[in-house]
Design goal:
Elements: H1 2-60, H2 62-77
Amino acid sequence: MKNWLKENWFRLLILIIATIFVAGFMFINYREYQLKRLRAQQDTLEWFGDNFRNSFSKYIGEREIKNFQKLNRDTFNNPL
């Protein structure tokens, strides 16, 4: 074992350095992948939210929504 270590210490050192380098590279790429996936998920949720809000306001109409808000405000101010 000692003879093998004396003969191959440099190869072992290069192998350890390469392993650390590859592990760091993989970790950095995985973090970037997670951030991209999170951004895509947020964009998708925002798109669905905007799409639902737009279709809802088109379906009911802006006037009806404002009338409902006014009715709600009047009921809250004058409950009787």
